[in-house]
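Chain X:
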Amino acid sequence: MAILMYAVSLGIFIMGYVSTGTNKNLLTIVAVLGILPASKRAVSVVMYARAGCCSDILKSRVEGLEGKIRMMYDLYLTAYDKNYQISCMVIRNRNVVAVSENPKTDLKKGENHIAERLACDGVKDVTVKLFGSNEVDKFVKRACELSGLEDETTDLNNKIANTVANVSL
């Protein structure tokens, strides 16, 4: 899609250049503005290529919880100084529990980043726990515990999920 967007912008630029004999015309401005969304898509492609995804092993261990609890997979949270790859996240009753299978993920900063983003969106008093790549068993156990609880905050869970999705690729 990004290549098509670049091609359209290039075509507009060439039409303007051919019709006026110079690049100083309105179609040049339109072509440059057309490159902006194409560039945004290209950056997203590069970021997706860098981001890891949830392993098949982890997915098979938690897929039985789908439908019982709010789950999100393959998140790549972006921050000013660092990015956080999250393989799987579950949300229930003011609890956000996630696991990163990337051993380089700074867990504490990741937890703080999620909590800060939620607070900025007006979601307070939420417990955020991010498990590391060597704590997958603990994550699965906690996710199973949360799925057994009665869901008292469905609207809040949706708001949390929307906030996380907005700061993720």
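Chain Y:
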Amino acid sequence: MINWSLDADTVTHSIQLALAPVFFLTAVAGMIGAVAGRLARIIDRARKLEEMLRQPQEEEFIARSLTELHFLRKRGRLANVCIGLLTVCGFCIGLTIALLFLGEAYGINGHGYAVLGFLLGVAMFLMALACFLWETVMATRLLDFHMLTKVRDAVRVIRRDTENPGA
């Protein structure tokens, strides 16, 4: 039989018990916002590249743009998977909070399910972090640091020529 007594001590203890998962839920929400922002930038960049490819371009630019679009597509998929994992995580943590609160307030025995929901939420969060890390690694793979070296060398030549005009 369910115990329906709601004295102040029971409610206070129930809220304290559910507080830690609430902080975790806040972290999940912040992470969803961060990944959604990255996904928006990925989509904007892909649209810009597609728009530029509709105009006549040189072959090297087309090849570079198609390679970048391929990477953007992979990054977008990873960001979507990450958001999906974070959403499942948020659902599991919310379910944990509800089970803990109901267990304390009404004597419903759901602590085993609450632990399972919390651990499942943590596992989803860890997988989402792995996706996030891989997406950020992919974002830097296309950077052409050789171009940066060429520009730096060109600046050195210009400075040398301006410092020693007769040499």
